[in-house]
Amino acid sequence: MTSFAAMEHCAVLIEDHQIADVFSKKRFDQKHFSADTKIIDVHEGFIAPGFIDTHIHGFGGYGTEDAFDTTERGTDSIVEMSRTLAQYGVTAFNPTFYPSEKENMLKALKAASNAMGRESGARIMGVHLEGPFISPDRLGVQRPETVKAVDLLLMEELWDASGGHIVNMTVAPELKGMRELALFCIKKGIILQAGHTDAKYENMVEGMQAGILHSTHLFNAMSKLDQRNPNAVGAILIHPEMSCEIIADGYHVHPDLYKLLMRDKPVDKIVLITDGLKPTEQQEGPFFANGEEVIFHDGVFHRKMDDVIAGSSLTIIRGIENLVSYGFSLEDAVKTASFNPANVMRYRNKGAIIPGHDADLSVFDEHFNIMAVIINGRIKKNLY
């Protein structure tokens, strides 16, 4: 299976950390390989491009919020996220930070920058900032004291602290000064996402004109569709140029809404994310997220003090399985987790099984169990 068209009974040749060729069974049987070529038979497994999670706060007891303590602890925690995510088929990710006090955010961004190049598993592609320039009326579990008016000087400090590694950033398009911020981000190559926003439809259109063409966890923490003003949700559904994140856990978004999404959005514009929290797949509590205790029930983490949904416990492979159960083809479901995020984030040489691309592969069986993971041509998991 590639991200463009499924191929049955195929083989993928890896040379020098890249995909060198893709064979049909007939071509493979006719091919003569050198004696030192290692051949791994995945039997009836599906070979997919490596999964890319562009919105994830933590995993397996490790998380980006650890960087608010010390830069060193944060670096170590993000490196451990890399290791554990690889066991679940993720080959690249954007560690995602909630906004915090300025000093904390600067430490955190330095931690993420320091972690890049030290990964033992999934590659860190860059940082996702989920704020601080968001709406105080659409916080979710974000802390109100950390939300800021648009501040270009602060943005420059954040950019410098990251070492130029901010890849994507969630913003509220309706905020004063957003156009100036958008122009700054365009020059730096930062993908802006509309999210945690109370935008009216006209705010969203103005944002699109300024280059805000992606959106954060569609349907969640944004102004709802209304018959007199389409607002944020309506704008994202109406305009085909807008891409959107989705949390396909069956709790953040009702499963039947995916029928609407499949009808109204080109599949290329749908990006599967987990929005996973630090305690995802963590075996023992207590559990914490964004500095507050959370409890797990009804399939998601809730903030203990008020039961507000704090985030998901989703893994990408489970999200793919869920999308298939909602009516997506397997091919399209995989695409939302590989080719689409690579395309939206402008990651060259990732997200597809074609010659010249990085040799990042995830292999899973018919029950959506991860059987093998290859990152940059190196085996990180192999159960065959």
Automatic annotation (TrEMBL):
Query: Known NCBIfam families for this protein?
Result: nagA
Q: Which family does it belong to?
A: Belongs to the metallo-dependent hydrolases superfamily. NagA family.
Residues reported to bind substrate: V141, N220, A221, R228, H252, I309, A310, G311
Q: Which InterPro entries match?
A: Amidohydro-rel, GlcNAc_6-P_deAcase, Metal-dep_hydrolase_composite, Metal_Hydrolase
* Keyword Metal-binding listed: yes
Gene giving rise to this polypeptide = nagA
The identity of this protein, by name, is: N-acetylglucosamine-6-phosphate deacetylase
**One Pfam family from the UniProt entry?**
Amidohydro_1
Q: Which residues form the active site?
A: D275
Q: Which GO terms describe its molecular function?
A: metal ion binding; N-acetylglucosamine-6-phosphate deacetylase activity
User: What are the leading ranks of the lineage?
Assistant: Bacteria, Pseudomonadati, Spirochaetota, Spirochaetia, Spirochaetales
* BP GO terms, sorted: N-acetylglucosamine catabolic process
Q: Which residue range or ranges hold the Amidohydrolase-related domain?
A: 46-379
EC numbers for this chain: 3.5.1.25
Q: Which residues bind Zn(2+)?
A: E130, H196, H217
Provide the alphabetized UniProt keywords.
Carbohydrate metabolism, Hydrolase, Metal-binding
The record describes how the cofactor is bound as: Binds 1 divalent metal cation per subunit.
Q: Specify the enzyme's EC class, one word.
A: hydrolase
Q: Which cofactor does it need?
A: a divalent metal cation
Instruction: Note the superkingdom of the native organism.
Output: Bacteria
Report the source organism: Leadbettera azotonutricia (strain ATCC BAA-888 / DSM 13862 / ZAS-9) (Treponema azotonutricium)
